[in-house]
Write a structure and sequence with these properties.
About 45% of the residues lie in helices and about 10% in strands. By secondary structure, it is an alpha/beta fold. It has a single domain (about 5-310), classed as Rossmann fold. The strands form 3 sheets. It has a 5-stranded parallel beta sheet, with helices on both faces. The protein has a two-stranded antiparallel sheet with strand order 2-3. The chain binds thiamine diphosphate (TPP). Thiamine diphosphate (TPP) binds near residues 147 and 179.
Length: about 325
Amino acid sequence: MPMEEFGTALQLKFYENMYKSRRFDERLWDAYTSGKPLGMTHLGIGEEACGTGSMVAFRPGDIVCPHHRSHAHQISRGCDLKTLLSETLLKSTGTCKGKAGEPHFVDVSKNLYVLGGTLGPCYTVPVGFAYHLKHEGKGNIAVAYTGDGSACEGAFHEGLNMAAAFKLPMLVIIQNNFFAISEDFRKMTGLDHLSTRAKGYGIPGVTVENGNDVEAVYSATMEAAEYVRSGKGPMILELMTWRQMGHAPNESGVKYKDPAEQAFWMARDPLKVYPEKLRTEYGIRDEQLKEIQDAVERELDEAWAFAEAAPYSEPEVALQGIYAGC
Ligand SMILES: Cc1ncc(C[n+]2csc(CCOP(=O)(O)OP(=O)(O)O)c2C)c(N)n1
């Protein structure tokens, strides 16, 4: 999409979402390092442009299934910060009453289902959603997010094969941050890109080489979503990005990362590059960015106060909401 088609409102929305996601994760990191009780957490620091640029391209009726590293996706989808944070802290005020935590976070009101507990259903469950959406016929699509490592699960083949055979409206987004815990996908697969696997299913596969460029991610996702929405079948969109930290807060990643690659991607940090572009190319003033930052900090202060003050769910809550409608 040509640059002039990006209105300032959209640019500022990109910035706000990326900044909010970064600060959401940095505060979780602070909480972890100061010994506060947290549920399982995977920080997306450095990868904010992927969740932000892609999610903005989807409609409310689309069913989105982010993976385990997806606070940016959830925030971009408009999930309430207080209940989202409460869920991460496993509190009763969480969107799922603290029973799902981060890996199984579901916000039905937003058509958002995190499939992050067991890697594999992130391909097969969205096939079911896509099957339903195809037969519903309203032009909505299912979106399956995954990491590079998860794309090596057998269910990748099962899901993609079925979606392709039935020409289902399913978009698979591989958020390729190079590592599955400590394993480099290039060593695991012998490949430089994973979108090329699309050929085996007779479907299109596209890679965005700089998935830290939020506008490039947005444009590529708009095109991919349009393709899938048109009824031609599924598609793979791969976003190359970089996990700046360790897999989880308990390790730093320094043991298995190439320092030169780390430096290359740190220079592409979306929270450094994008504000500079906003200033120099779009004439956004520092005060406008500061206003956004201050509002985000206030919102996060409130969310933390709310979530920390909340109680944990009573044990009997574990038996509620297991089947739809109860
Ligand atoms: C079936 C299964 N195997 C292993 C795991 C443990 N596990 C959790 S996250 C993860 C790495 C996933 O890597 P990737 O898909 O690249 O996503 P990233 O964490 O890099 O964002 C692994 C192996 C799991 N949750 N499920």
